[in-house]
Structure formats: structure tokens, C-alpha cells
From TrEMBL:
The lineage of its organism: Archaea, Methanobacteriati, Methanobacteriota, Stenosarchaea group, Halobacteria. InterPro entries: ClpP/crotonase-like_dom_sf, Enoyl-CoA_hyd/isom_CS, Enoyl-CoA_hydra/iso. Belongs to the enoyl-CoA hydratase/isomerase family. It comes from Haladaptatus paucihalophilus DX253. PROSITE patterns: ENOYL_COA_HYDRATASE. It comes from the Archaea. One of its GO terms (molecular function) is catalytic activity. This is Enoyl-CoA hydratase.
Amino acid sequence: MIRVTDDPKIRIVTIDRPERRNALTLDGLDALSEAVREAAQPVVYLRGAGTAFCAGADLDVVAGLDDESATELATSGQRVANDIEDAESVVVAGIDGAARGGGVELALACDVRVATPDATFAEPGVRLGIFGAWGGTTRLPEIVGMGDALDLALTGRVVTAEDAHRMGLVSRVVAQPRKVADRLAANDPDALRVVKGRVRDRSSTDVQLAREAESFGELVAANADDIAARRE
């Protein structure tokens, strides 16, 4: 279900279950978490096989759950999303085709979200009497704002890549999202790691600023020769 291909600077993680629009089971979630957490490369590129990015949780699995096991599924999805957000690697979501429910929520946890013109997005759970519980109710309003978050979550409507770009759900709409990951991977790996850590830091402003200054000093010292060479 999860296929990994390693390049020197990029780990490509593919959700490979196209016959189910890359819907995830508990085993799939565990494998996805492991693939991201164990990446040694500075960039992880997350994509879906076939014509979808990810349809979220496998509804055949969800239909057979009781209260306790449904809570476990939600907790597992949240853990994987947190693992993506907390990974040392910069995680780029390359979204081509449908992202639905948990697929949207996994994308929200990524550091950079890039869509093709054929990408579509929806949180359709409300139509089935459920909702996105892999961190969607926290990350969605944080990223797109309360108004658009409520619109998406309460209506279940499908939005295009251009609409997603307008509301900030994705940062770019391009024909080949992989090229964005390649461009990121061309940057200094330590700088990528530090910038992600600083931007993701949720400490108080004073603490963030102190850590920012300290990290900047460490990078300048580590890259003094390269910086000097650029001046010549």
C-alpha cells in the first residue's frame, strides 16, 4: 500500500492503492508514518498512485467499527499527520486528482502543498454523518481561515485546484509538482531543517525570536566559507 523510492536528496512516498483511490487502512497509516519518519533525505515527496491523491480512511473499514475502534482510527490518523508535521524532512504533498477527507488532512500536515490543475478537494464526511478527524478541525481553519474551513467541512462540497489555491489550501498549481520538490531539495539540507523547525515552532514569540537568532548564528558559522565565496 505504501511504496518508497529513495533518491539521494528526495524520498518519494507513494500511497499505492489506486483501485480504492488510495484509501488507507490502519496498516497503511502505520506504513505511511514509518516511511516519513525514517527518511534520511532532506525532502519527502508524498503522492498518490493512479488518478487520486488519497481518499482518506477506507470506508469498508470505517463501516465495521464500533465506538472504541473508530476512536482508535481517528487517533491513528492524527498520529500520522503529526508525524508528517514533526518530521525533520520537509514534506511536500504532490496532489493530482482527488483528495478527500483524510487525504486532505494528511496534505494539511505537509509543509508544502502543490496541486496539478486536475486536483480536487473535499471534506465529504458530513454527508455520511461523520467528519474529518485526522486533525482536520484544527489544521483546516489554521491554514484556510475559519470561514472557508466551515464552508468546506459543513457543505462537503468539492473545490477545484484554483479554488484551493485561492483559499491557501495549496501554495501552487503546476503541471508537475515533483519539480517543486526537486527545487527544494537543491537547497542546503541544514537550512531546510532549521527553517521548517523555526516556522513550525509554536512557542511564545520571545522564545521563537531567540531560537531564530541562535539558529541563524549556527548556520552562518557552519556555512561561512560558502557565504564568503558568494561575495567574491
